[in-house]
Amino acid sequence: MYRPLPREFYNRDPIKVARELLGKLLLRQAPDGLTAGIIVEVEAYLARNDPANHAFRGLTRRNASMFGPPGHAYVYAIHSRWCLNAVTEPVGVPSAVLIRAVEPRQGLSLMRSRRGIDDPRLLARGPGRLCEAFAIDRSLDGCDLTVAERLWIADEPTELPVRIETATRVGVTSAQQRRLRFFVADNPFVSKPGRPRRRTI
DNA sequence: CTACCGATTGACT
DNA sequence: GTCAATCGGTAGA
Question: What's the predicted TM-score (pTM) here?
Answer without folding.
Answer: 0.94
